[in-house]
Amino acid sequence: MQNRTLNQFNKNTSAMQVEEPVVKPMLPWVEKYRPNKIEDLAYQEEVVQSLQGVLKTGNLPHLLLHGPPGTGKTSTIIALAKQLFGPDFWRQRVLELNASDDRGINVVRNKVKKFAEQIVAKNPNPGFLCPSYKIIILDEADSMTNDAQSALRRIIEDYATTTRFCIICNYITKIIEPLVSRCVKYRFKSIPENEQIERLKFVADSESVTYNLDALKQLVVVSGGDLRKSVNMLQSSSTLYEKSINKKAINEISGFIPDEQIEDLVSVIQTKSIRSVQEECTRVIQQGYNIEQLILQFLDVVLATDTIKEKQKAKMMEIAAYTEKCLIEGSAEDLQIFNLMAQCQRIINEN
Ligand SMILES: Nc1ncnc2c1ncn2[C@@H]1O[C@H](COP(=O)(O)OP(=O)(O)O)[C@@H](O)[C@H]1O
Ligand SMILES: [Mg+2]
User: Fold this and answer.
1) Coil, strand, or helix at residue 73?
2) Would you list the DSSP string of 260-292?
3) Cα of 291 from ligand 1 centre, angstroms
4) 33-36: long-range contacts (C-beta < 8 A, 24 or more apart)?
5) What is the pLDDT of residues 124-159, one digit of tens each?
6) What is the C-alpha separation between 146 and 236, in angstroms, rounded?
7) Which of 205, 234, 270, 324 has the fewest CB atoms found within 10 Å of its own CB?
8) Other Cβ atoms closer than 10 A to 69
9) Which residue numbers delimit the AAA+ ATPase domain (predicted)?
């Protein structure tokens, strides 16, 4: 009622004034469908089982979570924090720093240390264990410098009674050994296709998106098994295609090159005509595809082609790797793609 009066007032004060639509902020689906409890996590049973113990006792060691992107590492520690401290209170007890934050040595010495020093009260939130420590999450720690990691090592030791650390990374080899040895390590497994599809179905159904199985399968393929990528892509494609998606829509939005196009390239290198190779390359280049994506998909199809011998495949991989290096160094795309295809043709015709 009050709103209406206000709107009427606005209309009366200026004939030109346009009523602002009330826009509800749209939460990214990756956040909306982030598991709230560790037991909601798909396919990481060993991790979940082991962390259930923490929820019973409140004894949390320093953690190191590692594994491929989009497998639930960040979700795990956030869910654990929510379950330990309560859904409203956990933010006060958690400092989360990821790759978009500056985490150079100065930040580690100042911000992290300052937060680590604070002493917190036990059990201020009834109904939750709320143990008397805070958690510092260093997400995507692969990108932290060795100096910053070294500075952290001392802080971890000095403040262990008030603060627990959770280091998250894709590659454990990027973390310095003294940090690794101070943590309990959990490896996150790649999530198999069927589990990913189940998760995508759940999100799509909850958002009333119409889809077919092919579309979901393609989402898994183009996102390389990264659930964050596939959920994000599901959201953008369903926004763009008005809540109805199919394989073609997914290809369009992801820049994935149609299978037929790649298959044409693979058949042309199996002929003896360099002219045909050149014509096919020109056709592909005119389509404006992303060349690196093209090479990756080309190699996938080559690997799956039985008529090409193993030894030939190995040689082709080597040349493709060199091509990628040249492209990174700024070499002309059309020349590189033509060179790669011509050499692949030569390899096939040699033996
Ligand atoms: N194991 C999983 N179970 C359920 N959802 C997952 C899982 N892994 C990833 N997701 C989905 O992908 C998104 C990103 O996951 P996240 O935990 O940030 O991945 P990571 O930190 O391993 O890169 C989450 O919001 C969730 O929707
Ligand atoms: Mg993460």
Assistant:
1) helix
2) HHHHHHHHHTTSS-HHHHHHHHHHHHHTT--HH
3) 29
4) 33/202, 33/203, 33/206, 33/231, 34/75, 34/78, 34/79, 35/72, 35/75, 35/79, 36/79, 36/82, 36/87
5) 788 899 999 999 999 999 999 999 999 999 999 999
6) 37
7) 205
8) 17
9) 59-192
Mean of the pLDDT values across residues 265-282? Answer: 96
Say how far apart CA 42 and CA 35 lie, in whole Å: 9
CB 81 within 8 A of CB 229: no
- Predicted confidence band of residue 21 (pLDDT cuts 50, 70, 90): low
pLDDT (tens digit per residue) in 231-258: 999 999 999 999 999 999 999 899 899 9
pLDDT > 80? residue 9: no
SS3 (DSSP) at 122 = coil
CA distances from 325 to 70, 182, 319, 333 (A): 27, 37, 10, 12
Is pLDDT at 279 greater than 50 in this prediction?
Answer: yes
Report yes or no: 170 and 68 within 8 Å, Cβ to Cβ. Answer: yes
* CATH entry, 259-350, from 3.30.300.330, 3.90.550.10, 3.90.1150.10, 1.20.272.10: 1.20.272.10
Structure tokens at 291: 């060349």
By alpha-carbon position, which residue is closest to atom 20 of ligand 1?
70
Residue 135's DSSP bridge partners are 94, 164
Assign domain 33-187 to its CATH architecture: 3-Layer(aba) Sandwich (3.40)
Residue range 193-254 in CATH 3.60.21.10: no
Residues with a CB atom less than 6 Å from ligand 1: 30, 33-35, 41-44, 69-75, 188, 191, 199, 227-228, 231
**pLDDT for res 19:** 52
For residue 18, what is the DSSP state?
Answer: P
Pick from 27, 34, 47 the residue to mutate for probing ligand 1's pocket: most ligand atoms within 8 Å of its CB. 34
- Return the domain boundaries, the chain: 33-187, 193-254, 259-350
CA distance 173 to 183: 14
